[in-house]
Write a structure and sequence with these properties.
Blueprint: H1 16-34, E1 47-48, E2 58-65, E3 70-75, H2 84-95, E4 102-107, H3 113-126, E5 129-132, E6 135-136
Parallel strand pairs: 1-6, 2-4, 4-5
Antiparallel strand pairs: 2-3
């Protein structure tokens, strides 16, 4: 007498819960990656009530060392400074393929306006748009 089972065990695996987890992880990483501050340099920016919504692709940071009366220029928040003489060339390399080339200037409160104007003159010569970064009041 052969007794057979009428129900068979399903050996399949449902992927719906796995795709939900992957989707949630993707959203989590997208949200957290936009919260990361692109400027690693600690700068005390001047305060302003106006905030612009335009996005700059490149940032130029000007750091002032009053004890040495020295200024350093940093591209995209990198720790390694570059010389002012090579700043224009580096900006041209980074902004050459951009449709609407824009860069932002992050300057310490103690940086004389002359140094900021020198960077703005680079933008004027190359027809770049400039955003002067400030911190909200």
């Amino acid at each position: 007498m052969a007794i057979r089972r009428k129900t068979k065990v399903d050996s399949g695996f449902s992927m719906s819960s796995m795709t939900d987890i992957v989707f949630l992880l993707l959203i989590f990483f997208l949200v957290t990656s936009t919260l990361i501050n692109p400027n690693a340099l600690k700068l005390l920016l001047p305060k302003s009530t106006n905030q612009i919504s335009a996005k700059a692709t490149v940032s130029v940071s000007i750091k002032h060392y009053p004890s040495k009366n020295r200024f350093t220029y940093h591209l995209n928040g990198k720790e390694t400074p570059i010389m002012f003489n090579s700043l224009e060339e580096e900006l041209q390399i980074l902004l050459d393929d951009q449709e609407d080339p824009t860069f932002s200037i992050y300057a310490d409160k103690t940086v004389p306006i002359e140094q900021v104007v020198n960077v703005m003159n680079i933008a004027k010569r190359n027809k770049y748009k400039v955003i002067l970064a400030t911190s909200p009041e």
